[in-house]
Amino acid sequence: MQFMFAALKLGIGDMIYYLVIFAILLLAVKHFAWGPVTDMMEKRRKKITDDIEQAESNRKKAEILANQREAELKDSKQEATQILSTAKSNAEKTKQSIINDADSEAAAIRKKANADAVQAKKDALNEARDQVADLSVAIAEKVIAKSLSAEDQKDLVDQFIKGLND
């Protein structure tokens, strides 16, 4: 038993020695290694947090830019539609203007053609009257065998034409 007691004393002494050495090592580790390791871990935690915040911020910016691009694309489509609509409207107005101008020109041509036809008819009637007058005079000269004065000829032609109109 004594042996056990001696062994137990030796074990307690060693144990105290190991505890003291462990405490000294723990203090040395805390002083020389734990501080720098915790600082490094804190810096790493902060960097990861900052990276996550930066990524979130970038994602929000990308989302905002995507929404802006989508809105601009929608506006571009609306603008293109409006431009096409305006172009169609302008083309329709131009078409109508050309048609109106062509109708006006055609009406003017028809009016001039009618006026020319009326004038040609008058000219033809006047020429026919002159020819009838000449023929009448020639026939009258042969029938009467005498020559009429210009005044007499005119009176005879006028009487003849009045007779044709009645």
Mean pLDDT: 81
Q: Counting H and I runs of at least 4 residues, what is the number of helices?
A: 2
What is the approximate shape?
A: rod-shaped
First and last CA, distance: 180 Å
Strand content: under 5%
Low-confidence stretches: none
Q: The biggest beta sheet, please?
A: none
Helix content: over 70%
Structural class based on helices, strands and sheet pairing? mainly alpha
Order of helices and strands: HH
Description:
Residues 38-79 form a coiled coil. It is a single-pass membrane protein. Keywords: ATP synthesis, Cell membrane, CF(0), Coiled coil, Hydrogen ion transport, Ion transport, Membrane, Transmembrane, Transmembrane helix, Transport. The chain crosses the membrane at residues 15-37. Pfam families: ATP-synt_B. The chain is mainly α. The protein has one domain. It contains two helices and no strands. It has helices spanning 2-144, 150-165. Helix 1 packs across helix 2. The chain is rod-shaped. The termini are far apart. The relative contact order is 0.03. The model has no long low-confidence stretch (mean pLDDT 81).
What is shown here, in short?
The chain crosses the membrane at residues 15-37. Helices cover 96% and strands 0% of the residues. It contains 2 helices and no strands.
Topology readout:
Layout: H1 2-144, H2 150-165
Helix pairs in contact: 1-2
Coiled coil: 38-79
Transmembrane segments: 15-37
Keywords: ATP synthesis, Cell membrane, CF(0), Coiled coil, Hydrogen ion transport, Ion transport, Membrane, Transmembrane, Transmembrane helix, Transport
